[in-house]
From TrEMBL:
Record-linked InterPro entries: CheY-like_superfamily (IPR011006), NreC/VraR/RcsB-like_REC (IPR058245), Sig_transdc_resp-reg_C-effctor (IPR016032), Sig_transdc_resp-reg_receiver (IPR001789), Tscrpt_reg_LuxR_C (IPR000792), WalR-like (IPR039420)
Keywords: DNA-binding, Phosphoprotein
CDD domains reported for this sequence: LuxR_C_like (cd06170), REC_NarL-like (cd17535)
Keyword presence, Ribonucleoprotein: no
Signal sequence extent: none
Organism: Pseudomonas pergaminensis
Domain Response regulatory, first and last residues per copy: 3-122
Segments forming domain HTH luxR-type: 143-208
Pfam family, one: Response_reg
Modified residues (4-aspartylphosphate): 54
Keyword hit for DNA-binding: yes
Name of this protein: Response regulator
Amino acid sequence: MIRIIIADDHPIVRVGQRVVIEASGKCKVVGEANGPDQLLTLVGSTPCDVIVTDFAMPGDQQADGYGLLGLLHRQYPTLPVVLVTMFANVSTLRSAFAHGAQAVVAKSASARELPLALKAVSEGRTFVSECLRVQLDEACHAQPTQPARLSGKEHEVVRMLASGMTVSQIAARVNRSISTISKQKSTAMQRLCISTDVDLFTYARESGMVP
């Protein structure tokens, strides 16, 4: 029996997830949390095999989102985390996996795909919702396991941005125009299927470009 802890700040969502998770008879929900604070307390006191958590949940002491995923990964590196989220886009997918999630399930498809995600992570595999795989294929013309390839100059720009330099400072450092640096930044983000500076900096850290 696979033991599951679920976390979502909406009780009705947790009720639905419990029904879906336990329908097969192979999984059992051993705890429920309404936010990151309660989740971390519960995981520390209740043995489980998989965590199923929402992305955006209010917390008093602990951050939600990527902060929560990163903390869970650091404290429980062998415990699979399935992220169930309404923020189903390529940027969230890449960042969630970079912060330690083993599966990303879109809330719109969770009733059908959540059991598949649980089976995958319990067997040591990753899982991505079908709608996200389609988005990634359309955006990058590549599978999630195929890393995006940056040119040397794009890699250099991303590394310097992540180290704290501005576009203007980079332009002055490498003797290129500001518009050229901006273009190289934009092209790099398109190749990586990243839409925000925060996710770009996260990618740079996780890929070892900066400490």
